[in-house]
Amino acid sequence: MNLTEERAKEWRAGLRNAMKAKERTAIPRVHMPELDPEYRSHTRTEEVNLGLTPEMAMQEAKRCLDCANPTCMEGCPVNIYIPKFIKNIERGEFLEAAKTLKDTSALPAVCGRVCPQEKQCEAQCIHLKMGKESVAIGHLERFAADYERESGKISVPEVATPNNIKIAVVGSGPAGLAFAGDMAKLGYEVVVYEALHEIGGVLKYGIPEFRLPNEIVDVEIQNLQMMGVHFITNCVVGKTISIKDLEDDGYKGIFVASGAGLPRFMNIKGENLVGIMSSNEYLTRVNLMDAANPVSDTPVYKGKKVAVIGGGNTAMDSVRTARRLGAERAMIVYRRSEEEMPARLEEVKHAKEEGIEFWTLHNPIEYIGNEQGRVTHMLLQVMALGEPDESGRRSPVEIPGKTEMLEVDEVIVSVGVSPNPIIPQSVKGLEVSKWGTVVVDLETMQSAVPVIFAGGDIVRGGATVILAMGDGRRAAKSMNEWIQSTESRV
């Protein structure tokens, strides 16, 4: 144990004596300040959540009991040392808290904003067993990362001496960035290939700025660049260059994190009418191409009566975006009840505050258009909940003969995505599932082609940012071990 760790241990022991667990659990959980709902529903780029003040953060940090067996860490896919960073905040050492986060997370400011902490780290908080609200781990993570960025004193994680081994990453989304960060720390020469013109993947094209500002993503990427990670944009691996090209160029390992950008539709009558598009296309136009800007070359239709089909976070992002683009009626149409919605509770709450209508237990069965071929109405089948399906959610069943007609001028379909097929179709010997996902050993993330590892949506078909990052970290550890063992045999 070094001197710093010894002093921290002594401080924490003294703190326990100064403040008992009962006093800590009596402190109410902090509430995140937010923009006024009426104001924010008309501004596209201002972030809804405003962040904690230092005083609020230190008060919330006092609620952490610094458990001997921190179960919160068991719920974190990237294994952040949660008690350590929170105790740094409690004693006002905010930059140290940010440094602790960066030891294991390449994107702390992102994760503090968009990760479903309530289903992961916070779901394992011991406060819940005592009938209390969990410690606001996500809010504190965001605070520490934001404080460091705003202070201008940004720390760069230590990297090992360069080993002159080249590693390629396909895709700059959360899985690719997490993998790149860990491999850079180990001394590898890491090059990330991105198909689009901007770095960040789904963090840029899929998540609106009112939830995750582009500036935040850019700072996290700059941190990776300072660690030595290189980025090449406008390059589609599998088209512009091949996997074999990368191998021929001397790359000893390739991590595929090309995501799931292929939209799914429902294949119902009228789905090809003008005014119906996927959430992927809609959000990419608005978020990445700045289509809502009058001077943008990319068009986007600004519907007045907009229905979004689906109940996940992407559906919430889409419907809240439509509201900000001037929709007089912005509606979620979801075939199950609100309780079954996979979207974060916070996103549902924010949507309701912003005037979003929720048409739960309804499912579109036909779209109707006018003579010009534009959608004007949607026929909805009224549903009821039956027995639970494989995921544990109760399956929706039709109520025979019960339908409703809803007037719309734009429909955004958000019922899931499929993996990008370019790499699976272009690499001989790569095992692919019937859903189009790359098959890997989930312990090592290694594919049937030994040089290729994969993670994120290309493996899962659809995942949260933090689960994708967990894949990236696991792949980095495994690839390093595989390369070292391979090199030692040469």
Walk me through what this model shows.
- The protein contains 19 helices and 15 strands.
- The protein has 490 residues and is α/β, with parallel strands linked by helices.
- The protein has three domains: 3-151, Alpha-helical ferredoxin (Fumarate Reductase Iron-sulfur Protein, Chain B, domain 2, Orthogonal Bundle); 166-261 and 419-489, FAD/NAD(P)-binding domain; 263-413, FAD/NAD(P)-binding domain, CATH 3.50.50.
- The strands form four sheets. The protein has a five-stranded parallel β-sheet with strand order 3-2-1-4-15.
- α16 links the parallel β8 and β9.
- The longest helix is centred in the last third of the chain and has 25 residues, at 465-489.
- The two termini are 37 Å apart.
Can you identify the CATH class of the largest domain? Answer: Alpha Beta
CATH overall fold name of the largest domain:
FAD/NAD(P)-binding domain
Assigned CATH superfamily of the largest domain? FAD/NAD(P)-binding domain
Classify the helix fraction into a percent range: 25-40%
**H/I helix tally:** 19
Give the beta-strand count. Answer: 15
Morphology call: globular
What amount of the residues lies in strands? 15-25%
Number of domains: 3
How big is the Rg?
24 Å
Structural class: alpha/beta
